[in-house]
Design brief:
The chain has 248 residues and is α/β, with parallel strands linked by helices. The chain has eight helices and nine strands.
Length: 248
């Protein structure tokens, strides 16, 4: 059985200090059927020079103005021809060179594959696993308790992946994953750490507006009453984790 084609998409803007590590980690993957797409937002800090350094190994790349992170992600999907989408943005990395070989080691294919996320610091040192631990069996209803799987550790089939809703500036990834889960017939827990996520970036810098957007998305999908009840559980856990770790 032919291995499914995985389109790995990296979105980047003025990230000269992190983009090379991301590119090198993706190019180090041993999985044989990878398509690598890089979407740059018109960087002016040397990022484009680093992309050009590896352009013979990158399937396709583009650079130019966009309407933000999620618009760039939509551009990446439009440029892709794979069976699956996996977003490894600048600063992020696949967990190991053989991680996709392990994900697709069986004969059947799921609509969504998910796993754990390892947090790393600016120097690339491991900090620990993400605050949310993915459930053994995931459904869209589980997202009532928040984004239990990080975007970087969520691989979605083109059959269930929609476009990012640009009306959400900070949490469109939550809505995108929720949409994919809603339309998935089979959702598979890989039991693996799929990605490394570098702390910081847009999500951390905009945590409050991001949480407000996520609340709106939850109300839209789960209803106001259910969302409010869920936050009686989410909020104390969030605060306790922050007090213990001083990070989100």
């Amino acid at each position: 059985m032919q291995q499914p084609r995985v389109s790995i998409i990296t979105v980047v803007y003025n990230s000269v200090t992190t983009i090379e590590a991301t590119i090198k980690s993706v190019l180090a993957l041993t999985y044989s059927n990878v398509e690598y797409i890089v979407v740059d937002g018109g960087s002016t800090d040397g990022t484009i020079d680093l992309i050009k350094k590896y352009e013979q190994q990158i399937s396709r790349w583009t650079s130019g103005p966009d309407a933000g992170l999620y618009d760039a992600m939509n551009k990446g999907m439009e440029m892709s021809s794979g069976d699956y989408f996996w977003f490894i943005n600048s600063g992020d990395e696949p967990a190991s060179p053989d991680v996709l070989d392990k994900v697709f080691s069986g004969n059947s294919t799921a609509d969504v594959y998910y796993g754990e996320t390892m947090l790393i610091d600016e120097a690339g040192n491991e900090i620990g696993l993400r605050r949310h631990s993915p459930p053994d069996h995931l459904s869209w209803r589980d997202f009532r308790r928040g984004m239990l799987v990080s975007h970087q550790s969520f691989i979605a089939s083109g059959k269930v992946a929609g476009k990012y809703d640009l009306s959400y500036r900070f949490s469109a990834d939550y809505e995108w994953c929720l949409h994919a889960l809603k339309h998935a017939s089979e959702i598979r827990n890989t039991g693996l750490i799929l990605s490394k996520f570098r702390e910081g970036g847009m999500t951390r810098q905009n945590i409050i507006p991001g949480l407000k957007e996520r609340f709106r998305i939850m109300v839209k999908n789960f209803g106001l009453g259910s969302t409010i009840l869920a936050h009686f559980v989410i909020a104390p856990k969030f605060f306790r984790y922050w007090m213990q770790n001083r990070r989100f």
